[in-house]
């Protein structure tokens, strides 16, 4: 029969949680990357600059983020994760809440500046092209869950293409903010959702 020490962890060592020092270093590095992104643009987010501002050693930064673009990705991803909502099953409410999260992202200096940088560089830099794809997958996952769930329940046509639906919902917000440079409020979000539902849900 194994001893209590043997069952605590591999090789008899007790299991340990995440290292709080590593978590603090990561948070400090990402905060510094976010500040540099807003203040000076994507080209200022370098390992040297982040190390100088955060106090985190360059060796540690390179270990966690071998490429500076990965720092930008994680800085934006933090904002995206905070903008997502948990679906409730109410189609209109879920779409409004998720688009409100996108609206907040597009008006947030860190995520807006980061998204502009990624879009700008993606056509010429494979690293940023991969970064754009990663951010799109993360940013659209709740939309997919909501839309696919509604199709299964009969709230939306089963043959509605999910990617096209996401384009119809998120596209106007992205265009209005990132290309037209215009601010908008929750009324605009609700109008986009209601136009989408009139076009598809009542079919």
TrEMBL record:
GO MF terms here are:
DNA-binding transcription factor activity; transcription cis-regulatory region binding
Lineage of this protein's species?
Answer: Bacteria, Bacillati, Actinomycetota, Actinomycetes, Kitasatosporales
**What is any Pfam family matched here?**
TetR_N
Recite the UniProt keywords alphabetically: DNA-binding, Transcription, Transcription regulation
PANTHER family named among the record's database cross-references = HTH-TYPE TRANSCRIPTIONAL REGULATOR RUTR, TETR-FAMILY TRANSCRIPTIONAL REGULATOR
Q: What's the protein name?
A: Transcriptional regulator, TetR family
In this entry, the residue ranges of the DNA-binding region are 46-65
Name the Gene3D superfamilies for this protein.
Homeodomain-like (1.10.10.60), Tetracycline Repressor, domain 2 (1.10.357.10)
Residue ranges, annotated region (Disordered): 1-21
Superkingdom classification of source:
Bacteria
User: Which regions span the lipid bilayer?
Assistant: none
Query: Which residue ranges does the record assign to the HTH tetR-type domain?
Result: 23-83
């Amino acid at each position: 029969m194994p001893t209590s020490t043997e069952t605590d962890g591999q090789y008899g060592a007790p299991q340990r949680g995440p290292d709080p020092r590593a978590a603090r270093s990561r948070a400090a590095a990402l905060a510094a990357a976010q500040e540099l992104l807003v203040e000076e643009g994507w080209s200022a987010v370098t390992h040297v600059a982040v190390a100088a501002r955060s106090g985190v050693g360059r060796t540690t930064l390179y270990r966690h983020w071998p490429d500076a673009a990965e720092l930008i990705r994680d800085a934006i991803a933090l904002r995206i994760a905070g903008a997502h909502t948990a679906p409730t099953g109410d189609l209109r409410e879920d779409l409004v809440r998720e688009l409100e999260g996108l609206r907040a992202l597009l008006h947030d200096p860190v995520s807006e500046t980061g998204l502009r940088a990624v879009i700008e560089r993606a056509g010429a830099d494979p690293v940023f092209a991969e970064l754009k794809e990663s951010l799109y997958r993360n940013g659209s996952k709740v939309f997919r869950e909501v839309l696919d769930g509604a199709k299964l329940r009969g709230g939306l046509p089963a043959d509605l293409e999910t990617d096209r639906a996401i384009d119809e919902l998120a596209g106007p917000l992205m265009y209005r903010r990132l290309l037209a440079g215009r601010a908008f409020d929750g009324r605009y979000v609700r109008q986009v959702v209601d136009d989408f539902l009139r076009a598809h849900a009542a079919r």
